[in-house]
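Possible regression after last week's pipeline update?

I re-ran a chain I had predicted before the update to compare outputs. Posting the input and the new output here so someone can diff against the archived version. Not blocking, just want to make sure nothing changed silently.
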Amino acid sequence: MSRRVAVIVIVAATLLKLAFFAVLDRPWGCGCGQIWALPDNPSLNSRVMLDPYTLMHLVTGALLVLLLVRLRPRWNLWALVATVVISSTVWELVENLPASIQLFNYDPGDPLAYRGDSRLNALADTAAAALGAVLARPMPLWLVLLAVAVIELGLSLWIGDGFIIATLRAVLALP
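New output (post-update):
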């Protein structure tokens, strides 16, 4: 894929995401003037541009690019990043559907209760996935997997959440 085509795909995915979030009437941000949410203020998660969950998106991009390189070894970096952006966009659309939000199984009174992403947060999540792909592409598999394990363990200890905990929460909520 040429750089030009990849940029067109990335811009189209971004515009689609913004249109979807507009239909859902999601805010642009938190309105609080902050760009980063720390664990001591979890109500800002998914509302500010960056939060601890941004690291999960970075990891997702890294893992996805490693899978893509194995499946499509001839793809150039532009094709890989465009595919990661499309994948992240699809995830953001699905993640923010009302039915998906309910799968996270938070008590509505819980300050951690997920109510969906702001537009700025969703854009930053996709940028983090693309960054993860670019960073992981030249790295050996063992180093990426080590980084993934460290980030997962770190998030689990830091905020009491991560891929494994969130997956268990969603699976246990299914009928």
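Follow-up from reviewer: compared with the archived run. The mean pLDDT is 89. Marking as no regression found.
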